[in-house]
Design goal:
Layout lengths: L5 E5 L2 E6 L10 H15 L6 E6 L3 E3 L11 H19 L5 E5 L2 E3 L2 H6 L3 E5 L3 E3 L2 H4 L5 H11 L1 H9 L4 E2 H7 L4 E3 L4 H13 L3 H16 L4 H12 L2 H12 L9
Parallel strand pairs: 2-3, 3-5, 4-6, 5-7, 6-8, 7-10
Antiparallel strand pairs: 1-2, 8-9
Helix pairs in contact: 1-2, 5-6, 9-10
Length: 255
């Protein structure tokens, strides 16, 4: 049944599924509230090692429900700002995240996927950011994310031209990390999950935070040094070195 995004956790992997397939998984305010709640839950659960964000049906997501912008000046700003807070919460998650792009990506969903650490797309999908065609100035953190991750040239192409961009071009631009046939999507996402889960959780989480801060240009060297020292003194590092010496798989505990 259609409704707010669903959260399922199994074997250390959380899957959040957008759940309005009849409307290309467009996001209503109640959906944004549900996503924020899910992200809040995952942010404080160290047992969850990876988040996969995906859609139901034939599209990943059509972005924010534009019908909810019709309520005057306040509605025209409140909705996008709630959307911005939701995407920022996704980017800020300490655990690594994968966008499983089961289909095309439109509007604000382009930023929702970009806030994930990795994006796996399917052949035949496309991306379109129609803000300029609608008369919208996109929210600041979304612009920053696009420029920092794809470069200003790619960002201008996506935002100012408002043209549809095919999957092969999205791979070339660096928007997609991997592009596969639809029947290979689950296997590719699973391979990424396994690779992330095989690594030391503390190192993955701290380096993710540091890399994102560097990309935003707001990092402090002292804070990065603290994380470096934390990992250097960790049980995970001792276990990793012992496993390497013994030629066995490490058993990390995230501390």
């Amino acid at each position: 049944m259609s409704g707010p995004p669903r959260l399922v956790v199994a074997d250390g992997v959380a899957t959040v599924t957008l759940n309005r397939p009849a409307h290309l998984n467009r996001l209503h305010r109640e959906d944004l509230a549900a996503l924020q709640s899910h992200f809040g839950t995952l942010a404080t659960d160290p047992a969850v090692r990876v988040l996969v964000l995906t859609g139901s049906g034939r599209a990943f997501c059509a972005g924010f429900h534009l019908g909810e912008l019709d309520g005057g000046d306040t509605a025209a700003s409140d909705g996008p700002q709630q959307f911005e807070r939701t995407v920022d919460a996704l980017e800020a998650l300490p655990l690594p995240t994968i966008a499983r792009l089961n289909g095309s990506v439109y509007g604000g969903a382009t930023d929702l996927a970009l806030a994930c650490d990795f994006r796996v797309g399917v052949q035949g999908m496309e991306l379109r950011m129609p803000a300029a065609r609608l008369g919208l100035h996109y929210y600041p953190s979304g612009l920053r994310r696009c420029v920092s991750r794809l470069g200003v040239g790619a960002a201008k192409r996506l935002f100012l031209l408002a043209e549809a961009v095919a999957a092969d071009e999205l791979l070339r631009l660096g928007y997609l990390d991997r592009l596969v046939a639809a029947d290979a999507l689950d296997a590719e996402v699973h391979a990424l999950e396994q690779a992330l889960r095989a690594n030391a959780p503390l190192a993955v989480r701290t380096m993710k935070a540091s890399l994102d801060e560097i990309a935003r240009g707001d990092f402090e060297l002292a804070r990065l040094r603290e994380r470096e020292a934390q990992c250097a003194a960790s049980a995970d590092l001792r276990e990793g070195l012992a496993a390497f010496a013994a030629r066995r798989a490490p058993r990390f505990e995230g501390r």
